[in-house]
Amino acid sequence: MAFLAAVQELEVGFPRRTGEVVRVVRGANFAVAEGESVALVGESGCGKTLTALSLVNLLPEPGRIVGGRVEVAGKDVRALPEQELQQLRGALVGYVFQDPSSALNPLLRIGTQVAEAGVLRYRWQRQEARRKAVQLLREVGLADAEAVAAAYPHQLSGGQRQRALLAAALSGDPRLLVLDEPTSALDPLAKQRLLELFGRVQCERGLAMLVITHDFTLAALATQRVVVMYAGETVESGDTAQVLASPLHPYTQALLRCAVLLPRSEGDGSRVPLATIPGEVPAPAEWGRRCRFVERCDQDLPRCSMAHPALVEVTPGRRVRCFLHADGEGPGGQ
Ligand SMILES: Nc1ncnc2c1ncn2[C@@H]1O[C@H](COP(=O)(O)OP(=O)(O)OP(=O)(O)O)[C@@H](O)[C@H]1O
Ligand code: SF4
Ligand SMILES: [Mg+2]
Q1: Cα separation of 299 and 305, whole Å?
Q2: pLDDT digits (tens, 9 = 90+) for 167-219
Q3: Given Cys at both, which of 80, 174, 197, 295 links 94, Cβ 3.0 to 4.6 Å?
Q4: Judging by DSSP bridges, how do beta strands 312-315 and 318-320 pair with one another?
Q5: Could you tell me what percent of the chain has a pLDDT over 70?
Q6: pTM of the predicted protein model
Q7: Alpha-carbon distance 249 to 109, whole Å?
Q8: In the chain, which ranges are continuous DSSP H helix?
Q9: Which residue's CA is minimally distant from atom 6 of ligand 2?
Q10: How confident is the model at residue 8, as a pLDDT?
Q11: Considering only CA atoms, which of 140, 122, 260 is closest in space to residue 188?
C-alpha cells in the first residue's frame, strides 16, 4: 500500500549544552494511507506531539530529527529544503496545533489567519482571501462567518477558536489533516459536535486524518486505525476495532481500563471507578536496555528487564512491541 505519510524508527533529539543529544522520541513508527483516519494515543509526555510535528519538520528549537525516516507523499522530509517544506505545510499537511489559544496570533484577525495557507499556495489577493476565509469558516459550521472572520481570537469561545483553527488548516487544501488533542479543552457537547464536524469534513474532502489524543474514546469514535505510543516509541498498532476488542500490549490493556468507553456499573447500579496506571512514564535517561514499560507492567517476564523488545508484525496489519507476543530484540535499547 502506498502511504501518504510514513514514520519509521523516528528519533527526535534535543542537544544539551554539553553537546550530548537527549533523544525524547526513539522508535516511533506509523503510517497513514490516503483517506485513512489514524489515532496516535498515549499518556502525556510519550512523544505524540513531537512525532506528529516531525511530519512537517516543525520541531520546537533546538529539537531535531536525529534518526529514522519521515516521508510525506513519497518525499523524505529531512532532505527537503525550507522552501519545499513550507509548501508541504498547508498544501499537503494541515495541522491543528495542541493549544488553540497559543496557535492563533492574538494581534491578527481570524480571517487573515484562516486564509494564510491558501494565500501561500494559491496566491489569493486580499479580496479573494477574505471571501475564501468566510467560506471556510462556514464550512466548519460557524454560522456568523463574516463576524468571526473580522474578530480577534480573544473574542471567540474555545469551540469557535478550535473551528477557526480547523478552517485555517483546510485553507491550503491539504491531503492529511493532523489534529493534536482537538477536543481536550471542550465540554462534552462541543466535543461531540466537533467530532461530527471532523467526520463530515474528512468524508467530504476525502482527507486522511491523524488524531492525537490521550483519550481512547476519541480514537474509538473517530478513527480506523490506532497507534499506541509509550515513552517515545510505538508499542502497538492495528485496526481500531481489533485493538479495542483484543489489546495485545499490557500498556494498551491498561489504557483501555482507564478509558470511559462504556458505562460501567456494578449489578447494584453503583459506578465502577476508572482504573489508573500506577507509576509514571520513565524519562529518556531511565529507558536503558530493557522494556520501557517494565516498571509498570503486571505481566513482566525475566527477559523484559534485560532486553528491549522489537516492534513486530504479529498478524497482518497488527504490530506489537512486547516479549509476550514476539521474541525479537529491537533497536532503541542503550
Ligand atoms: N521543547 C522541548 N524541549 C525539550 N524537551 C521537550 C520539548 N518538548 C517536549 N520535550 C520532551 O519530549 C517529551 C515528549 O513530548 P511531547 O510533547 O511530544 O509529548 P506528548 O505525548 O504530546 O504529551 P502531551 O500529551 O502532554 O501533549 C516530553 O516528555 C518532554 O520531555
Ligand atoms: S515486554 Fe515484558 S515488561 Fe514489556 S510490556 Fe511486554 S511483558 Fe510487559
Ligand atoms: Mg502533545
Answers
A1: 12
A2: 999 999 999 999 998 887 778 888 888 888 888 999 999 999 999 998 888 89
A3: 174
A4: antiparallel
A5: 93
A6: 0.92
A7: 46
A8: 48-54, 82-91, 100-103, 110-122, 126-139, 145-150, 158-170, 188-205, 216-222, 240-245, 250-258
A9: 322
A10: 97
A11: 260
Taking 70 as the threshold, does the pLDDT of residue 305 lie above it? Answer: yes
Q: What is the DSSP string of 103-118?
A: HS-TTS-HHHHHHHHH
Domain borders along the chain are 3-92+174-320, 108-173
For the 3-92+174-320 domain, the top CATH level (class) is: alpha beta
Binning pLDDT at 50, 70 and 90, where does residue 91 land?
A: confident
Task: Give the ligand with the smallest distance to the CA of 290.
Answer: 2
305 Cα nearest atom in ligand 2: 3
- In the structure, which protein residues have their CB atom closer than 6 angstroms to any atom of ligand 2? 249-250, 291, 293-294, 297, 299-301, 304, 309, 322-324
Q: Which residue bears the cell 491498561?
A: 254
Residues 68 and 28: beta-carbon distance below 8 Å = yes
pLDDT value at residue 194: 84
Report the C-alpha gap between 31 and 9 in whole angstroms. 12
Please, which residues have CB within 8 angstroms of residue 289's CB and are 6 or more apart in sequence? 306, 307, 308, 333, 334
Q: Pairing between strand 312-315 and 3-15?
A: unpaired
Whether the bond between 60 and the residue before it is cis, its omega within 30 degrees of 0, is: no
CA atoms of 287 and 204, how far apart (whole Å) = 43
Q: What is the pLDDT of residues 105-147, one digit of tens each?
A: 999 999 999 999 999 899 999 999 999 999 999 999 998 999 9
What gap in Å lies between CA 66 and CA 320, rounded to an integer? 24
Reference 227, options 46, 1, 3; nearest CA is: 46
Q: How far apart are CA 323 and CA 292, in angstroms?
A: 12
